[in-house]
């Protein structure tokens, strides 16, 4: 296995941080070096974000692990991801939910949607569909979703995402600009929505109809 030593050290460090066995098992299998531009491959198993071009990043492994754990992923689930980026987070979730599950991952930048699609194909993940579009609107075509994973920071929770979450579902979403917090949003079986603050994080902004406005130099809400 390529980068075996680096991978083992990363998994050991994530285990020490309290990441679940289920997520560690998945991350052990996903070749992160296939999800970063080749010039960064040698740093793929360092626990930090890396540039993937177009002013975007692949999230740090501990953040991917944390989000997977907070989502309480289970086999066979249908997941919506906002922000495909490199496709790595989707690949880790795909390992956990297995072949009976399905992931729809939306990316607003065409070059990254192609990058994510190719990386997922090269790594052998056939149950992830990458969609080019504005994920702040969700993806109504396949709603509702068991889980929604948002990997860019929103001004506040986009209402289409709440609507497209299944009763009993969980969403994780970073919110805020500059000072950001990660929230766990749960929809109870009878439709009641609760929002729990997990703590401070740093993500790139969610840009779109219910995100930040790319044309507003003051980075205001659209
Ligand atoms: N999950 C990614 C991975 O594993 O590499 C990391 C994603 S990166 C931190 C956030 C991504 O969200 C970027 O690729 C960015 O282009 C994308 N993004 C920002 N706003 C978006 C939107 N409204 N819809 C879809 N993607 C968006």
Automatic annotation (TrEMBL):
Signal peptide: none annotated. Keywords: Cytoplasm, Methyltransferase, S-adenosyl-L-methionine, Transferase. The lineage of its organism: Archaea, Methanobacteriati, Methanobacteriota, Stenosarchaea group, Methanomicrobia. PROSITE patterns: PCMT. It is an enzyme of class 2 (transferase). It is found in: Cytoplasm. This is Protein-L-isoaspartate O-methyltransferase. It comes from Methanolobus profundi. The keyword GTP-binding does not apply.
């Amino acid at each position: 296995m390529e980068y075996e030593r680096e991978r083992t050290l990363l998994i050991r460090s994530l285990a020490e941080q309290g990441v679940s066995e289920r997520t560690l098992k998945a991350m052990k299998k996903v070749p992160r070096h296939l999800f970063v531009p080749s010039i960064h491959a040698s740093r793929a198993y360092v626990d930090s974000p890396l540039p993937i071009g177009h002013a975007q990043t692949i999230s740090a492994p501990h953040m991917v692990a944390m989000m997977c754990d907070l989502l309480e992923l289970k086999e066979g689930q249908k997941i919506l991801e906002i922000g495909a980026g490199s496709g790595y987070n989707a690949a880790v979730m795909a390992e956990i939910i297995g072949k009976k599950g399905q992931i729809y991952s939306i990316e607003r930048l065409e070059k990254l949607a192609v990058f994510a699609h190719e990386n997922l194909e090269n790594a052998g993940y056939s149950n992830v569909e990458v969609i080019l579009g504005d994920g702040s609107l969700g993806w109504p075509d396949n709603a509702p979703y068991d889980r929604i994973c948002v990997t860019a920071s929103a001004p506040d929770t986009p209402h289409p995402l709440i609507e497209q979450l299944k009763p009993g579902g969980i969403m994780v979403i970073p919110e805020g600009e500059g000072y950001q917090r990660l929230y766990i949003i749960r929809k109870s079986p009878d439709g009641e929505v609760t929002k729990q603050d997990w703590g401070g994080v740093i993500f790139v902004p969610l840009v779109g109809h219910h995100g930040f406005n790319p044309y507003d130099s003051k980075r205001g809400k659209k």
